[in-house]
TrEMBL record:
It comes from the Bacteria. Keywords: Carbohydrate metabolism, Glucose metabolism, NADP, Oxidoreductase. It catalyses: D-glucose 6-phosphate + NADP(+) = 6-phospho-D-glucono-1,5-lactone + NADPH + H(+). Substrate binds at residues 181, 185, 219, 238, 339, 344. It comes from Apilactobacillus kunkeei. GO terms for cellular component: cytosol. Its EC number is 1.1.1.49. Pathway: Carbohydrate degradation; pentose phosphate pathway; D-ribulose 5-phosphate from D-glucose 6-phosphate (oxidative stage): step 1/3. PANTHER family: GLUCOSE-6-PHOSPHATE 1-DEHYDROGENASE, GLUCOSE-6-PHOSPHATE 1-DEHYDROGENASE G6PD. NADP(+) binds at residues 13-20, 48, 87-88, 151. The active site is at 243 (proton acceptor). PROSITE patterns: G6P_DEHYDROGENASE. Residues 11-190 form the Glucose-6-phosphate dehydrogenase NAD-binding domain. This is Glucose-6-phosphate 1-dehydrogenase.
Length: 493
């Protein structure tokens, strides 16, 4: 039986796209499953628009009805939603918000548990946090106060630190839940289960057996309607500093002493501390950027709507990351992410070393035909695991061939898998910060990314340099070829 938690949500950006597409359906699923206490829960949504409660509830119904068991259920859910027109930059509005929160707290007997969710442009995060505290919107009667904030968390170390200092004036670090929705993905969470639940895997999870690890976050589409935002950000800030770094950290961390959030975070931070932060020259050698060109009807990036035609924003990044510790000495972690690639997928390929001696080839006096064992974790769009081994071809003799052990998520497992936002909001309700990025993690990732950014802002790129529908620029293949390696997934194969 689910544990239901009493909670009052205050959502800033309630009229926005994310709220409608992801947040309301997620909270509805938690309501259906009994994870929010159906009798003791309310949500105040805010935006500048002059909406009534009725209008707000229509939006809620529109967003959740397809997933409701009945119209009554959806309506009962929507009846917990209240709207206040509010400009977050106007301090006076917060007094009314505080009064309203206290009223609903009493009405629903919520016992002071508050979750503040800022689903707005990041330049508002600090202002909202400051005013919430200054205008007594945080409860002080023994309930919890938690702040969930969306990405991006800064655009470099300095702006992230400034934002963090602003938040810290109102919320302690353990009250801040920084969303990185990749951490809510089933297969990303499965990395921890596979590594620390299986001595078979954890026993070989080191530089004695692993040759290299490859993490790919590929998108098939271009910038679409996000061009304005994206051109000021680029792939390094948009995908590498956050999602990719978080995945690398979980792959590289040491065993936590328990599955508690504090213990996992401690190990993630230790892993990030051992990550080598490049000098500028090293960054030039170990990181590659790209921008897509034209292909048939597809315009090049510089001719997309809302993109300046001399833009040097990268739509692709590949790089090599090194962890300088006993476990990972000499094991490169290769990463790549980009837009307009072959397909939309996220995968992790763990490439194992070949046997030191190939007894089959030496018996025949031929070159070894054994392949590297590869453990591939498919994170998106399907959850799948493939372990590629070398096996014997059926028949006479001893010819070898690749043998794949495959686990694909069943339909039942798929149905039981919550969307990342549902899972993460539930974690925040429970006060479990395991799947949120801590300040120490975020700041270290910025230290790493800032060096590369600085080099790229200084050096002139030769753009465009890759074709839509490919897996990126040739330089990304050369990065691995220089080390005598290749991407496991390569569309040119
Ligand atoms: N959309 C996505 O798929 C997605 C994915 C990942 C992360 N995010 C992040 O989620 C956040 C929200 O994104 P979004 O796509 O939902 O943005 P959006 O559609 O532009 O919504 C922005 C919200 O902010 C409100 N707002 C703007 N200025 C305001 C002010 N001065 N006072 C009060 N409210 C104000 C708007 O309400 P009014 O217009 O009514 O004032 C609206 O509700 C961003 O940090 C974004 O980076 C979004």
């Amino acid at each position: 039986m689910a544990t239901a938690t009493r909670a009052l949500f205050m959502l800033f950006g309630a009229t926005g796209d994310l709220a409608k597409r992801k947040l309301y359906p997620s909270i509805f699923n938690l309501y259906k499953k009994g994870y929010v206490d159906n009798d003791h829960f309310a949500l105040i949504g805010t935006g500048r628009r002059e909406w009534s409660d009725e209008k707000f509830r229509e939006v809620i119904l529109d967003s959740v009805s397809a997933n409701a068991d009945s119209e009554e259920q959806a309506k009962a859910f929507a009846s917990h939603f209240y709207y206040m027109s509010h400009d977050v930059t106007n301090p006076e509005h917060y007094d009314a918000l505080s009064d309203y929160a206290n009223k609903l707290d009493q009405q629903y007997d919520i016992e002071g548990n508050r979750i503040f969710y800022i689903s707005m442009a990041p330049n508002f995060f600090g202002t909202v946090a400051k005013n919430l505290k200054a205008h007594n919107c945080l409860s002080d009667n023994g309930g919890f106060n938690r702040l969930i904030i969306e990405k991006p968390f800064g655009r470099d170390y300095d702006t992230a630190e400034e934002l963090n200092n602003a938040l810290a004036k109102s919320f302690n670090e353990n009250q801040v839940y920084r969303i990185d929705h990749y951490l809510g993905k089933e297969m990303v969470q499965n990395i921890i289960a596979l590594r620390f639940g299986n001595p078979l895997i954890e026993g070989i999870w080191n530089n004695k057996y692993i040759d290299n690890i490859q993490v790919t976050l590929a998108e098939k589409l271009g910038v679409e309607e996000r061009a304005g935002y994206y051109d000021g950000s680029g792939a390094l800030r948009d995908m590498v500093q956050n999602h990719t770094m978080q995945m690398l950290t979980i792959l590289a961390m040491e065993d936590p002493i328990s599955f508690k959030d504090v213990d996992i975070r401690r190990e993630k931070i230790r892993a990030l501390r051992s990550m080598h932060v490049y000098t500028e020259d090293e960054a030039r050698q170990n990181f590659v950027r790209g921008q897509y060109g034209a292909n048939g009807d597809q315009r090049d990036y510089r001719h997309e709507d809302n993109v300046p035609n001399d833009s040097i924003t990268e739509t692709y990044v590949a790089g090599k990351v090194l962890f300088e510790n006993k476990r990972w000495k000499n094991v490169p972690f290769y990463i790549r992410t980009g837009k307009m690639l072959t397909d939309k997928f996220t995968r992790i390929d763990v490439v194992f070393k070949k046997p030191l001696v190939d007894i089959f080839a030496s018996a025949k006096g031929t070159e070894s035909e054994l392949n590297n064992n590869v453990l591939t974790l498919f994170v998106d769009p399907v959850n799948k695991i493939i372990l590629r081994l070398n096996g014997k071809q059926a028949g006479q003799g001893m010819e070898m061939q690749p043998l794949d052990l495959t686990h694909t998520q069943s339909d039942e497992e798929k149905a039981a898998t919550p969307e990342p936002y549902e899972r993460l909001i539930h974690d925040a309700i429970l006060g479990n910060a395991t799947n949120f990025a801590s300040w120490d993690e975020v700041s270290r990732a910025w230290e790493f990314a800032d060096v590369i950014r600085h080099v790229w802002d200084t050096d002139k790129p030769d753009f465009p340099n890759y074709t839509p529908g490919s897996m990126g620029p040739d330089a990304a293949d050369e990065l691995l070829a220089r080390d005598g390696r290749a991407w496991v997934f390569n569309s040119k194969k």
